[in-house]
Amino acid sequence: MVIGLLVRGGLVAGAVYYTNKVGIWGDSQQTEQLYNNVKSELCPYVTKAKKQLPFDVPQLPNTGEMRFLAKHYYNEGVKGSIRFVHMLPCYAGRGIKKVKDTFEDFAKSPAITGSQDAGSPAKQ
């Protein structure tokens, strides 16, 4: 468990370090330059893939659209996280009730099946 936590922490730290180094967390000009560099590097591969695909591939969004989409999805992620934290007591209460009910069901003796007269001979 501890090793897994250390590995995940190392991966997150490495991802943050790398994204900081390439300029994602820098100012907007630096991030825009990075986006344009990535777009220009991917252009030959995209055109090669377009020729091989049987359908039309849409163009990459321009910088303004990308900013809008990034802000929109970031805000949706924050809203979803806040909604989850807001509902956490409700979720915890439901989970505890479900666990309690399950343990109560296990604590009950099993129901007796069949009739009580099964051992006596049938009257004719």
From TrEMBL:
Keyword Secreted found? no
Q: Identify its membrane topology class.
A: Single-pass membrane protein
Query: InterPro entries from the entry?
Result: Mic13
What is a biological process (GO) this protein takes part in? cristae formation
Major subcellular site:
mitochondrion
Q: Give the UniProt keywords, A-Z.
A: Membrane, Mitochondrion, Mitochondrion inner membrane, Transmembrane, Transmembrane helix
- Please provide an example of a Pfam family that matches this protein in its UniProt record: QIL1
- Which compartments does it reside in? Mitochondrion inner membrane
Q: Does the keyword Transmembrane helix apply?
A: yes
What does the entry list under GO cellular component? Answer: MICOS complex; mitochondrial crista junction
The organism's superkingdom is given as Eukaryota
Physiological role: Component of the MICOS complex, a large protein complex of the mitochondrial inner membrane that plays crucial roles in the maintenance of crista junctions, inner membrane architecture, and formation of contact sites to the outer membrane.
> Assembly state and interactors?
Component of the mitochondrial contact site and cristae organizing system (MICOS) complex.
Return the similarity comment: Belongs to the MICOS complex subunit Mic13 family.
UniProt-recorded name of the protein: MICOS complex subunit MIC13
Write down the species: Drosophila persimilis
Q: Which gene encodes it?
A: Dper\GL15582
